[in-house]
Amino acid sequence: MIVLAGPATNGIDEGVARHLSVELVKVNHKVFPDGESYIRIPRKVEGEEVAVIQSTYNPQDKHLVELCLIVEALKDLKAERVIAVVPYLAYSRQDRRFREGEALSSKTILNMIWRSGADALVVVEPHKPEAMNYFRGDVRIVDPSPPIASKLKGMIKEPFVLAPDRGALDRASRLSSLLGSPYNYVEKERNRETGEITIGNVPSDVKGKDVVLIDDIVSTGSTMMKVASASMRAGARSVTAVGIHFLSDQESLKKMGEIGISRIIGTNTVPTSGITVVDVSSEIAKRL
Amino acid sequence: MIVLAGPATNGIDEGVARHLSVELVKVNHKVFPDGESYIRIPRKVEGEEVAVIQSTYNPQDKHLVELCLIVEALKDLKAERVIAVVPYLAYSRQDRRFREGEALSSKTILNMIWRSGADALVVVEPHKPEAMNYFRGDVRIVDPSPPIASKLKGMIKEPFVLAPDRGALDRASRLSSLLGSPYNYVEKERNRETGEITIGNVPSDVKGKDVVLIDDIVSTGSTMMKVASASMRAGARSVTAVGIHFLSDQESLKKMGEIGISRIIGTNTVPTSGITVVDVSSEIAKRL
């Protein structure tokens, strides 16, 4: 196997190649003055199994198109098998038509990757695992909980894992079992027209505990902040916010600090700054 | 037929709907704080023939992904037939592997549009018409020469059409036949590693003539400027630069003026400022 690094890896390529002890090759890449991407595979790949690492953080569309350019080029160049490793998969929240006439973006994006010729797809903590079925090849889901749990164990004493909605309960359950802690969830409702979020009650047994909020994607952070404030009102000793794919800008981060969140943790599936970063490359390597 | 305007039409949607006297519907579109696009078709399309207008100028990749989201949504929503009208088709210059290992971007992009479900594709002046065969449906090529010729007739007296390389000769021939003028071409060579361009001799019969340089895509404008300077040295009375898809920035435009190019003409397939713009929507409407 060769690990082939696309233009958007955020360092995960190096980690994966090191964990697997295989050759790491970097795609030749530039952006032309008009904005188009240029892609060239600098090595013969005929008959090889190639794991392409390319995350699809902002600019999502450019990174997606680059991934498709790489995958199709590898197949044209007769690679035996192409595994698309997409640590953060964009557009995965639009996995159904919430309103009539909406694009089913998750399906279109997975179709694009599949149709460009990828045989397998590796994704870290997708928004909904069942929506991954739009990719018609072999799908492998990477659970980032082990390195996140290790990091948390060194930071807090009495964890209580809280999912910010019922859909995130499985995620909270996996993390809490590694931490040996209780877990629960808070009801969340989103108004699909205004985007406004309302949350239900925080369970009373968070009192005196180090609450760990875990969500897959943190963008504006507004859900996290609402649940964090409610947890503090319910008597939590501290609140740690974990966003596996942490997309928030500096302004949102600042607000999260201001309302009293003690620690903010993300992973290296997307570039971040000002937060604690957990490396998930060992977990990706395990699925290759 | 319905004309459906995507987020990147540069006004062509209005022109096409007016020329055809059909209903114009605008896609609901927004960009989320994290950078993802949202697409919703605001009208029932079951059983309808829909012409989607979406150009793929910068940011090319976003506009391409949006086009695929729209086309796949229309097919999901049971539109009878979807015609993708892409006035400017990005990535069309990478239509072969100039160096081993390169992505064949033109193929990948055309495959994306085809696989998302478009039955037909309408493109204004593609870089190489034969490369359009990567789209496996019905391809219709729009010749923008008629409105360009009309515009030029009011501006210059003794046109001589000059193609800035042999590959552009057919383009120059079409325009010159509408102008009733002579035409010719200049040899061009591009170093694939450095990108540097060298040009051959300008034919001596441009002397005293109003030279019209025509190219499909003008990006940095360096080819245009080299041929313009050589034409002036060969005794041309004036030089007009026509770029069908005019991608240059203000700095390049300023340089083009400084070296003595009298007029710069583009079309509305891409947004521009500071040049004379020819509307090609009537020619697109003729192919629908």
In angstroms, what is the radius of gyration of chain A? 20 Å
The overall number of domains of chain A is 2
Give the termini distance of chain A in whole angstroms.
9 Å
Q: Which CATH class of the largest domain in chain A is shown?
A: Alpha Beta
User: What is the H/E string of chain A?
Assistant: EHEEEEHEHEEHEHEEEEHEHEEH
Structural features, described:
The structure is a homodimer of 288-residue chains. The first copy, chain A, has eight helices and 16 strands. Chain A is of the alpha/beta class. Chain A folds into two domains: 142 residues, 3-Layer(aba) Sandwich (Rossmann fold); 124 residues, Rossmann fold, CATH 3.40.50.2020. In chain A, helix 4 crosses helix 5. Chain A starts with a strand and ends with a helix. At the A-B interface, strand 4, helix 2 and helix 3 of A face strand 4, helix 2 and helix 3 of B.
Summary, kept brief:
The structure is a homodimer of 288-residue chains. By secondary structure, chain A is an alpha/beta fold.
Explain the layout of strands and helices.
The structure is a homodimer of 288-residue chains.
Chain A: E1 2-5, H1 12-20, E2 23-26, E3 28-31, E4 37-40, E5 49-53, H2 60-76, E6 81-86, H3 105-115, E7 120-124, E8 138-142, H4 145-153, E9 159-163, H5 169-179, E10 183-185, E11 188-190, E12 197-199, E13 210-218, H6 222-233, E14 238-246, H7 250-258, E15 263-267, E16 276-278, H8 281-286
Parallel strand pairs in A: 1-2, 1-5, 5-6, 6-7, 7-8, 9-10, 9-13, 13-14, 14-15, 15-16
Antiparallel strand pairs in A: 3-4, 11-12
